[in-house]
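To the team - heme C complex, inputs and output below.
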Amino acid sequence: MKKIIFICILIVLTVLALAFAQERGVKKKRPLPQDYGKTVINNFSEKSRMAPVVFDHWLHRSRFTCRLCHSDIGFEMKAGATGIKAEDNINGFYCGTCHNGKRVFDNKAVFRACDKGKRDEVCDRCHSLGKDVKRENNFSEFVAKMPKERFGNGMDWEQAEKENLIKPIDFIEDVSVRKKAMPIQKDFTLETKVSGLPEIIFSHQKHTVWNGCEICHPDIFTGVKKGSTKYSMIEIFDGKFCGVCHGKVAFPNMDCQRCHAKPVS
Ligand code: HEC
Ligand code: HEC
Ligand code: HEC
Ligand code: HEC
Ligand code: HEC
Ligand code: HEC
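Output:
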C-alpha cells in the first residue's frame, strides 16, 4: 500500500517539476548521453571571430576529479562564469594548466590551447561549436566498457570509480597543494518534509572522492551542521544545493530513486 502511495506521490511531483521547469523556460530536450555535461563557453570567442568553445565533462572527469578543476585550477561551476581569456590559457592558467603542449598524461603531451595571432587546426579542437571536428576520444567506445545507468551519460560513474575502471587524478604538480586529509564524516540520512517518501542517504565518503570538502563547504552548503541548510526539492530542480551538480554533470534529478533510496520502514 505504502508503495502505491509513494508511486502516486512520485508521479504527481514529477508532473509538478516538469510544469515548474517549463514555466521557468528551462525545459530542454533530454540531452543525448554524449552531450550530458557538455559545456559551451562563449564570452569572447565569437567577438574575436572564433567558434565558441565546447568542453566535454565526460572526457575530463574520466581522468580528473571535480575538485582538481573546480578548486585547484579555479573553474567556476557555471558555464561562462570563470571569464577565461586566451591570454590566461597562454600563461598556463585554466585550460592552459594542462593544454600547454608539454604536460604529459598517459604518456602523451596534451595539445596546447590558445596562441596569439596564429590560427591553425589545433584551435578547432576546442573552438569547435558548429564545426564538424573529429574527436580523438570516442564516447561510445569509452562508455561500452562502463557499468550502465539509465540517465545522464548512460553510465554509472560511482560504480566505475569503485571498480577502478577509472582512476581520476586529484593532484597536479606545481598546481595543487598537498594537504592533510580531513577526517571524513559518516554517511547520514536527510529526511524530507513529506512523510512516506523514502529518506535520502547522503554519503560523504563517496562525494569526497570526487569533490574533496572545499567544493561543497562553504559555497554550496554553509552549515557544517546537519540540518542547518534549509532547502526544498524545487530548489534542487532549480540548480541549487544538490542541483548544482546533479542535473548538469552528476546523475540528473529525474533519477529520483538514486537519492530517495532508503526504503520506508
Ligand atoms: C578538466 C577540468 C574539469 C573537471 C575534471 C570537471 N570540471 Fe566542471 N567545469 C569545468 C569547466 C572549464 C567548466 C566551465 C566553466 C566556465 O565556463 O567558466 C565547468 C562547469 C561545470 C558546471 C556548470 C555547467 C553549466 O552548464 O553551467 C558544473 C555543474 C560542473 N562543472 C560540475 C563538475 C563536476 C560535478 C565534476 C566532477 C564529476 C566536474 N565538474 C569536473 C572544468 C572541469
Ligand atoms: C587537468 C587537465 C586538463 C584541463 C584543465 C583541461 N583539459 Fe582538456 N584534456 C585533458 C586531457 C588529458 C585530454 C586528453 C588528451 C588528448 O586527447 O590529446 C584533454 C582533451 C581535450 C579535448 C579533446 C577532445 C577530443 O577527443 O579530441 C578538448 C576539446 C579539450 N580537452 C578541451 C578543454 C578545454 C576547452 C579546457 C578548458 C576549459 C580544458 N580542456 C581543460 C586535460 C585537461
Ligand atoms: C584547449 C582548448 C583551447 C584551444 C586548443 C584553443 N583555445 Fe582559444 N580559448 C579557449 C577558451 C576556453 C577560451 C574562452 C572562450 C570564451 O569565453 O569565448 C578561448 C578564447 C580564445 C579567444 C577569445 C579572445 C580572448 O582574448 O580571450 C581567442 C582569440 C582564442 N581563444 C584564440 C585561439 C587560437 C588562435 C587558438 C589556436 C592556436 C586557440 N584559441 C586554441 C580554449 C582553447
Ligand atoms: C557533495 C557535497 C559535500 C561534500 C563534498 C562534503 N560535504 Fe560535508 N556536508 C554536506 C551536506 C549536504 C551536509 C549536511 C548539511 C545540512 O544539512 O545543512 C554536510 C554536513 C557536514 C558536517 C556536519 C555533520 C553533522 O552531522 O552535523 C561536517 C562536519 C562536514 N559536512 C564536513 C565535511 C568534510 C570534512 C568534508 C570533506 C572530507 C565534506 N564535509 C565534504 C555536503 C558535502
Ligand atoms: C559538488 C557536486 C555535488 C553536489 C553538490 C552533490 N553531489 Fe551527489 N554526487 C556528485 C558526483 C560527482 C557523484 C558521482 C556519481 C555521478 O557523477 O553520477 C555523486 C553521487 C551521488 C549519489 C550516488 C552515490 C551512491 O551512494 O551510490 C547520491 C545518492 C548523491 N550523489 C546524492 C546527493 C545529494 C542528496 C546531494 C545534496 C545533499 C548531493 N548529492 C550533492 C556530485 C555532487
Ligand atoms: C540529487 C538527489 C535527489 C534527487 C535525484 C531527487 N531528490 Fe527529492 N530531495 C532531495 C533532498 C536532499 C531533499 C530534502 C530536502 C530537505 O527537506 O532537506 C528532497 C526532498 C524531496 C521532497 C520533499 C519536499 C521538498 O520539497 O523538500 C519531495 C516530494 C521530493 N524530494 C521528490 C523528488 C522527486 C519526485 C524526484 C525525481 C523526479 C526527486 N525528488 C529526485 C534530493 C533528491
